[in-house]
Amino acid sequence: MQLYYSTLRGMVRAVDFVSFEVGHLETLAIVGESGSGKSSTAHAIIRILPRNVAVFSGSVKFDSMEISKISEEEFRRKVRVGGISMVFQGAMNSLNPVMRVGDQVAEPLIVNKGMSKHEALKEAVEALQLVGLDETMSRRYPHELSGGMKQRVMIAMSLVLKPKLVILDEPTSALDVITQTNIMNLLKRLRTERGFSYIFITHDLGLASELADKVAVMYAGKLAEIGPIEKVYTEPKHPYTKLLLESVPTLRVDRQPVFIPGTPPDLIDPPKGCRFHPRCPYAIKGKCDVEEPPMYRDGEQAALCWLLEEGKT
Amino acid sequence: MTDKPLVAAENLKVYFPVRKLFGVAGFVKAVDNVNLEIFRGETLALVGESGSGKTTLGRALIALVKPTGGKIYFDGLDITSMSEKQLKTLRRRMGVIFQDPYSSINPGFTIYRAVEEPLVVNKIGSKSERRERVFKALSDVKLEPPEFFAYKYPHMLSGGQRQRVAIARALISNPEFIVADEPVTMLDASIRVELLLLLREVQQKYGTTMLYITHDMATAKYFSDRTAVIYAGKLVEVGPTRTVLSNPSHPYTKALIEAIPDPDPQNRLTFRKVILGEPPSLLDPPKGCRFHPRCPAFMPGVCDTREPEMYPVDSKVRVACFLYGGEQA
Lengths: 313, 329
Prior knowledge:
The complex is a heterodimer of chains A (about 325) and B (about 325).
Chain A: E1 2-7, E2 10-15, E3 27-31, H1 38-45, E4 53-57, E5 61-62, E6 65-66, H2 72-80, E7 84-87, H3 101-113, H4 117-130, H5 147-159, E8 165-169, H6 177-195, E9 197-202, H7 205-208, E10 214-219, E11 222-228, H8 229-234, H9 239-246, E12 295-298, E13 301-304
Chain B: E1 5-19, E2 24-39, E3 43-47, H1 54-61, E4 69-74, E5 77-78, H2 84-91, E6 94-97, H3 111-121, H4 127-140, H5 146-150, H6 159-171, E7 177-181, H7 189-206, E8 209-214, H8 217-223, E9 226-231, E10 234-240, H9 241-246, H10 251-258, E11 311-312, E12 318-319
Helix pairs in contact in B: 3-4, 3-6, 4-6, 6-7
C-alpha cells in the first residue's frame, strides 16, 4: 500500500509500501510514533481519506475480495455493513450531543439494514448491554455520560452491524488508566465471545501487548518490523523496535529507560536509504544511507534492515 | 537533599465556586485538606488521574491560585498572607513548566526574548549579563549552538525543542523550586525519556527542588525521589518512590499500579484485575474516605462515616486509609 498526501509544502509520503495481513480472530497491533503513518494506513483500509490524497496505490483485500477498487456503493454494502468498522481516536467527542445514545447506536441499523426504529433500538440496547451499559443508559444524552462510558457507546456502535474486523484507533488515549484497563478488558472479552479480528493502533507498546497477537512497527511511513508479538517483543530484529522497547519506562522490571537521539524525519523529504539511518546506532556507512533496505523474512517475522542481510547476523 | 522542607502545605484547601444566576451553587473541592512537604533538592512526583486536583495543588504551591484555606510555607515564609508585591519578589525563586509547549511560548517572541523575559520582568542583570545567561540556559538544555536557536521563532522548532525552551525559561532566574506540570505528556514516546533525563540532569546540577506532576506512574518511578498520590482532591499516599511503587499501601495506589501494562506478550492472554467506577464529583464528594465507593477493602461503618487522616505505615510512608490507623483498625 502506498499513500501520499499533497500539501502546500510538497508531497507527504505518509504510507510507503506497507504490507500486512490480519488473520481471522487475530489481532494486529500497529505501533509507531505520531506521524508514522499508522492512522493513515487504517483510514486507507476503510476509505475515509482526506481530499488531498495524491497517490493511493496497492491493494486491500478483505475476505479474499479486492476492496480498494470497487465502487463506493459496493464498498458500503459489502464492507461498511457487517464487514469492517472503526472506533476512532478521541471518539468521546464524536457522539452527537443532541441525540440519545441509544438512537445513535441504532442509526446504522435503520440506515443500512432498513430495520424499523423499534427493532433497531432493541438491537442497540443489546449492543449496549454487551459493552456493560444497562438499558437506562440508552435513553441518556452524551453529556450525561463519563468519558469511559462514551467510549463504551462508541464500541457498541461499531458492533451493531456485526463486523468481522474492528479497527481501533487509539481507543483509550484520552482516558484515565483505570478506565483504560476496563475498556481493554472489555475488548478482550468481546473478542472471545464474538469472534472478531482487531487492528489496534496505538503508540503505547505496553497497551499493544494487552491485545496483540501480531505487531507491526511503523516508522516514518514505512513498516520497520512485523511479526508475532512473542518474537517482536523478545527478539526484535530492527534497531528501531529494539530502541523503542528500551525507551519504555517499565513499572515491574527495573531498567533505566534509554532514549533514541534525534527526531522522526520530515515525510516530505525523507532521508535517503533507510529512513531510520540518521538515528540508528548500527547504521552502516555507504549502505544504509544510500540504498533502501528490503524486507528480510525469518519465519513469520520480518524486518526492513540491512543488518539482516545474509552473513551479517 | 536535606531534611528541611523548602515548600510545605498545611491543611491546604482550594475550592472553586460554581455560580448560578444569583449567588453560588456550591464549591468544587479541587484540593481538600492537603498536608505536604517538599524537601530541598528532591524531586517529588505528584501522581493522579485527570480531575484529581494535581495541577491545582501544583499551582497553589507557587501562588498561581489563591487557596481557600490552610497555609503554604516557602522557605519558612507564609505565602498565603503575602501581598501581591511581596509575592512578585518571591516568585523569582520559583519556576514553572507547563504541559503544552505549543501554547506556553509566545509565538511572536524569538526564543531569545522568550527565555530572557523572566530576567527583564524581574529587572535582573544588565543587557550583556542577561545575554550571557540566556545563552548559558540554552546550552544547559542542549539547544546547541545557542546562537543558532536564540533567533528562531517557536514555530520553527519541534515539540521537544519547544519544551527545552520552556525548561530554559524556567531555569534562567536560578529558581530554587520548579513545578513541572506534565512536561512530557504532549511529546512522542521516543523523546519523552530524553527530556526527563535532561530535566533530572539540570535539577541535580543546580540542586533545584522539583514538583513533577504526572499521571504516568512509570515515569515517576525513574525520575523522582518521593511520590505523592492524589485522589479526588485528597492525598492518599506519600512515600519514597521505590517503596510506593513496588509495595503500595493504599488500595487506590494498588489499583492504579495494577492498571498499568508493561510491554509483555503474556498480557493479552489474561484479564487485568481492575476496580470499577469513576472518580467522584468534587462538587459533592462521598462522605468519609473519598475512595470508599470503589474500594475493594471497604469497611462499612468506618470508611463511609469518618475521613481518614494520614497514618504512618513506617518512618517514611504515610497513608490515608483506616487499614493503617484510626481507632477501629
